[in-house]
Design goal:
The chain is mainly β. It has a single domain, classed as Beta Barrel (OB fold (Dihydrolipoamide Acetyltransferase, E2P)). It contains 1 helix and 8 strands, in the order ββββββββα. The protein has an 8-stranded mixed sheet. Strand 6 and strand 7 form a beta hairpin. The termini are far apart.
Length: about 120
């Protein structure tokens, strides 16, 4: 079951650059069944009047976002999962796009290299 999340009144900030989702056993990129695009995961901080949370959000296609940048997330859904004695919630979005400037000294290339700046 997918649960739609109302993101009105929520600000999102990229806290870790986009990373390709891969199969744990083979290392092959995971592909979205509907679009055929590779899946990417972006860590964001969600902030509203009640406080903040850090979420890892999966999206089809590589988003062009940088650490520290405000981002807009469209079509955010929560997908509860359970596997054996483990359970959790996965987050998926239709799109993640930049809507602000990144922190000074940061670029999309520095965030995709694990956040290390040369």
């Amino acid at each position: 079951m997918k649960l739609n999340i109302d993101v009105s009144g929520v600000q999102f900030f990229c806290t870790r650059g986009a990373e390709a989702r891969t199969d744990r056993d083979t290392g092959v990129p995971r592909i979205d069944r509907e679009t055929g695009l590779p899946l990417w995961q972006v860590q964001v901080a969600a902030l509203d009047a009640t406080g903040g949370e850090v979420l890892a959000v999966t999206v089809a296609g590589e988003p062009s976002v940088s650490v520290g940048q405000m981002v807009a997330i469209e079509g955010l859904v929560a997908i509860p999962w359970s596997q054996g004695d483990r359970s959790g919630v996965a987050y998926r979005a239709a799109s993640i796009r930049a809507c602000g400037t990144p922190l000074p000294g940061r670029s999309s290339s520095s965030s995709s290299s694990g956040g290390k700046v040369a």
